[in-house]
Amino acid sequence: MNFRALRVSAVAISLTSICAYSTAAASAAEPSTIRAGSIRAHLEFLASDLLEGRDAGTRGYDLAANYVASIYEQIGLQPAGTNGFMQRVPLRSSLLVPSSLKLSVQGAGGIKTFTDADHVAARPSSSEAEQSLEAECVFAGFGVVSPEHKRDDYAGLDVRGKFVVVLGGPPPGLPSEVAGHLGSTAEQRSRAAERGALGVFIVYTPALEARWPFVRLASVYAQPQMEWFDPSIPRPAGDQLRGFALIDETAAAALFERAPRSLQAVMKEARTRAPRGFELTTRAKFERRSQHSEATSANVVGMLPGSDPALSTEVIAFTSHLDHVGIGAPVNGDKIYNGALDNAAGIAAMLEVARVLANQPQKLRRSVLFIAVTAEEKGLIGSDYFASKPTVPRERLVGVINLDGAMPFYQLVDVIGYGADSSTLGASLKDAAASLGITISPDLEPGQQFFTRSDHYPFVRRGIPGRPRPTRVGPRRRWPW
Ligand SMILES: [Zn+2]
Prior knowledge:
Elements: H1 12-21, H2 36-46, H3 59-75, E1 78-79, E2 86-96, E3 102-107, E4 110-115, E5 120-121, E6 130-139, E7 145-146, E8 151-152, E9 163-167, H4 176-182, H5 185-194, E10 199-203, H6 206-211, H7 217-221, E11 225-228, E12 243-247, H8 249-255, H9 263-269, E13 278-304, E14 315-321, E15 326-331, E16 334-337, H10 340-358, E17 367-373, H11 381-388, E18 397-402, E19 414-416, H12 425-436, E20 439-441, H13 457-461
Parallel strand pairs: 6-9, 9-10, 10-12, 14-17, 14-18, 19-20
Antiparallel strand pairs: 1-13, 2-11, 2-13, 3-4, 3-13, 5-12, 6-13, 7-8, 13-17, 15-16
The site of zinc ion has 6 residues, from helix 10.
């Protein structure tokens, strides 16, 4: 596993806290002020070798979860899980059987076969041990459907029982966060599934390549992949797609061999506008074998009740992921990936924010639900489970603030409010930034689709406004989704 570059994310509440961090020493005795020492103490324990990198489903993670629950208790938060502070997340681990992944394309010049060693990358199936799917292929632009933006890449196409081929990366002509959301693989899969497709092949465009090299996908997907697995909750449509793979331009070109337009022409057009879809008149066969095992891990959930009789029914979720990637390939003899910054630091900051908010002389009017989520590193799984099965009525959740990769060791000078203008959180961000004397900057890297890549996003997908994500220019996070 790789060390991952980190993200800073927070909004109004935590921004205040992080900035206060640098001056906290002077007022360390004040219970309602952020204490640098508290953050350091949490961080040092959570990132210690004892916890073995806090991989979801391991003893190290469980120790970390118990630690967080103890701190919640000490602060005086109310247990808000399903078992005290814990919300058990049932997990299914799936492993792709080596060399079983195969994409065969019946083109003009006979059958071409691509394997996981070169041009096709896929996770294991989480539901089927053995798959051999065969169907016609249809190209559907970026696979975007948004009446609000007058976009329907499926217009005039019948994709029932077929493989949909779409371009990956943010579609052109849309605002950054909107493009990030509508062009995310989750949304692309959902749109295809809703239209009855058998599977989706996403063409690995230069925008995706810039984020994560295609050649490295296979080694990541060769690792066990996790999903929450709870038969009592219907899974999102996109998860019900039977086939899903990322393909490079060589494999994509084979799918386009008999098409009315070449892949090259389509990709050139896609730089400025979304190309229209069409039948590819190619058949493809998609094969893979997968092995499954079960595990559990917990989200740790504590409630700080609001003080206002009316407004306290409204709940702000404050999320931060507790897991990291565990034990992996040794670096200089050290095989524990401690995840100090990603995301022991975020949890440490969240715990200190919780303590300070609980100690404010003037209580918050709304309730705050602190959630240390599990399995972010496996694909936002703990947060997705919570958003699917919240421990408070979903209609009470009015917003989510997420803290991932807190790095309080530089002077914070500006923030980027991802999604800020899509909800009233934007006004709070502006107020907080103004009061702290920092500026708000535009999204500098729209190609990264950051808005879709942390634990607020599963909430956003279910209509709960996500946080603007303050950050600054720093090390880049590069990770496949
Ligand atoms: Zn993280």
